[in-house]
Amino acid sequence: MPRPRNTQISIEDTLFYHCCSRTVRQTFIAGVDDFTGKSYEHRRGWIENQILNLAGVFAIDVAAYAVMSNHLHLVLRIDIELANRWSDREVVEQWHQLFKGTEITQKFVKCEIIESHEIIALKHSIAVYRGRLSDISWFMRCLNEPIARMANKEDNCTGHFWEGRFKSQALLDETAVLACMAYVELNPIRAKMAKTPEDSDHTSLQLRVNAALKGKQPEKLLPFIGNEQLNQAKGINFSLKEYLELVDETGRIIRDDKRGAISSSASKILTRINISADNWIKLTSEFGKLFHGPVGTLQELTSYCEHLDKRRRHFAKCCQYLETSR
Description:
alpha+beta
């Protein structure tokens, strides 16, 4: 039986989560309907635009994403510090980018007089909005619901577009985060929808490659900040160049379906996280099959399960792949 979403999130253990949503009734996100000849490729653009828009509204960072033919993947990072830093006015302004709010919150942002009897209701709304803006469930709701309405309108139908629940998976250490990011971003190559990272449309990988060619990083994605954080407030503690090189070579091996080898320059990250090239290929090829729950070392898994009152044994076997990789 599915557990409530709040029993799968433990900010104390990790800020990173892998999320996946799938369509129902074989609904098209991409491709062409063989019967009608109608193309649905534009829907991938809808979804990608909404992901990047929400990254600028929520206190949630997008580390990776891939929009596929009938599902989407995201790697998200909860930025609880940002949510707590926002002033009351900033919280309401962020929320109003998505929803109208209440009459009182509308008065508040317009600097109109708030009556004394309205203050309690205003404070309550602000507290609720602050919590929702750092809530993965609300992020996914604000992503999926508008897309479902647009698709149903286009198809002239009603009913569910997405499965009722999205998959949420805690990523408990940097190896889990990096392997999951590469797995997500290499989805089009595994599915033979693309041959190279730069051809992988509607993915964070393509966005990073295009920005890197200009010596930049995408503003809407969680940045790579190198091996040391330096003055960066947040980011992924690896070199972007090394990551892109590693993912590119990994993609070539997966695409050609052969053993292959990762060069010494591209394997710098693997050396740092102490994982073999063979295990890296297995993780990035079969992550979704190997892990059906939280991902991390047994020590981190035990701590996570204790905090959420879960039975560690239920997930321990699948996490051995990361343990034996170290």
